[in-house]
Amino acid sequence: MNLHKLFTMQRALDQYIQANMQVTEDVFIKKGLALIVELAELANETRCFKFWSEKGPSERSVILEEYVDSIHFILSLGIEKGFHDLHEWPREVVEGDLTALFISTNKSILTFLTEPTKIHYEKLWILYGAIAEKLGFSSEDVLQAYIEKNETNYERQKNGY
């Protein structure tokens, strides 16, 4: 998937939020914590780790929306560090079940936050790609859901979210 459109849309949303909320501080770490929270919310909706429960995962649309919430923050973090020139979503085969992927991704987020290099940023994208694959999300699914959530985020800002 070409990421150029997503970076462009995210940059515009970030600028809108910063102007609307009069953000003057460095919010890199806050965005990082938001990404960790969004990853946890995604894991919770999949219920992949809840061996003690018979209840299945949330509806696909709910899981997809949680997934793209994370994508917003990954893009935003990349913009913060100047990695918005990543044109293609890097893909690699990643072994492990969904639970293991969530643990690896969480570790990758923490690594990127403490060592924000392009290599660590690309690894984060690789792991999110592997999560998408395990969840059965196509590039088109992610793109469409991102566009819809981006519009929702503008509306929320306009309505005092």
Describe the structure.
This protein is an all-alpha fold and 161 residues long. The chain has helices spanning 4-20, 28-46, 60-80, 98-114, 118-135, 139-158. Helix 4 runs antiparallel to helix 5. It is globular. The model has no long low-confidence stretch (mean pLDDT 96).
In short:
By secondary structure, the protein is an all-alpha fold. The protein has helices at 4-20, 28-46, 60-80, 98-114, 118-135, 139-158.
What is the residue-averaged pLDDT?
96
- Count every helix, treating DSSP H or I runs of 4 or more residues as helices: 6
Low-confidence stretches: none
Number of DSSP-assigned strands:
0
Mass-distribution shape: globular
Layout of SSEs?
Elements: H1 4-20, H2 28-46, H3 60-80, H4 98-114, H5 118-135, H6 139-158
Write a concise keyword list for the protein shown above.
single chain, 161 residues, mainly alpha, 70% helix, globular
